[in-house]
Target: Acyl-coenzyme A thioesterase THEM4
Amino acid sequence: MLRSGALRLCAPGVLRGPRRSAAPPTRESRPPPRSFASEVIRVDLSLPNPSWSKDMRLLFDQFMKKTEDGSWKRLPSYKYVSPQRTEVKTFFPDGKPVKEDHMPQAQLFPRSLEEGLGFEYAMFHNHVENRTVCIFQGGPYLQGASGFLHGGAIATMMDSTLGVCALTAGGVAMTANLNINFRRPIPLCSVVVINSQLDKVEGRKLFVSCNVQSVDGKTLHSKATSLFVKLNPKEV
Ligand SMILES: CCCCC/C=C\C/C=C\C/C=C\C/C=C\CCCC(=O)SCCNC(=O)CCNC(=O)[C@H](O)C(C)(C)COP(=O)(O)OP(=O)(O)OC[C@H]1O[C@@H](n2cnc3c(N)ncnc32)[C@H](O)[C@@H]1OP(=O)(O)O
Model:
């Protein structure tokens, strides 16, 4: 349940009523794929919700336009809700879990906070250019220095975007090295764009880099380079 404080802080526009633009996609519950128990409901968290600010919605709409010619794809991020438990299993469109859960309460970290209070994001991938873009609005529970995002929260979203870029381009891989420069702080509840790209592949090693910029592109908030190592198929 979204708390009104978060709603006011991150998306003042929603208090004046819904957007009137032509039928943008929004979150909805859908039945899960056949491989899941029939009572489980699947929700795509990469779609707009009322906590998204105007900037977040505008950027989302711009990227959705880029998906029309097939060069960019939006990457869904599913949450599975059953009467017994609530989980986030995977972002892949086929909705298959990566592994059987050892812990029923386990959730994908950036999807574990309540709507609007933590990580609000959507990712888009360009398969030709091996690039992943994440539009990210960090909510009030992610505060570090007063009024700004915590560096760990920024690192989380950079790691996630780099990881998705590596995984989408090369298969299941884990972060082996992540090297970040924080250049300018990110105001809480503002929207930033994380641009990542696959730079090089050497055997099982995937070198991926990214930067974090303000929506207008004028402020470079952070930069990172990373190494992902593809896992041995027997370990996946
Ligand atoms: C079961 C895991 C599932 C993984 C997740 C899969 C799917 C997730 C699905 C949905 C999630 C959605 C979105 C989020 C996506 C991603 C973001 C999150 C990613 C993470 O948050 S993930 C957590 C933090 N991450 C770790 O917890 C890793 C701990 N670690 C290890 O598990 C091992 O360390 C591993 C596997 C990395 C490698 O181990 P290994 O035994 O397979 O390979 P090995 O050590 O032989 O290295 C092979 C070659 O890489 C070079 N190399 C290795 N490490 C290096 C380093 N640091 N610097 C420079 N070079 C390095 C070697 O020098 C060698 O190079 P060369 O071949 O040239 O000799």
Q: What stands out?
A: The first strand starts at residue 29 and ends at 30. The helical segments are 4-10, 54-66, 151-170. The chain has a mean pLDDT of 83. Residues 89 and 97 are 5 Å apart (CA to CA).
